[in-house]
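Exercise 3.2. Students should predict the tertiary structure of the chain below and write it as C-alpha cells, then compare their answer with the key that follows.

Predict this chain's 3D structure.
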Amino acid sequence: MRPRTWVTGRCWLYCLRPGIPVTWIGPVQVEGQHADLYACEGCIRTLNGLVREAIWQRYHAPAR
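Answer key:
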C-alpha cells in the first residue's frame, strides 16, 4: 500500500468540513456520473470501523 497524498479540501464523507486535509479514497458513481471521493482522517477511520463491523457480522452470522 502506498502512502496517502493529502491535500486541502472538503471531506465528502460524514463531516463535510471544508478546508481540511483530505485524501482521495476512490471514485464514486451516482446516476451515471463519476467524481473523485475525498475524505479526512477521522471519516476514514469511521468508514474503516464500519467495514470491519460488517465483515465481523458476516463472519459470525448464524448458519442458515
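Discussion points: The mean pLDDT is 93. The first helix runs from residue 41 to 59.
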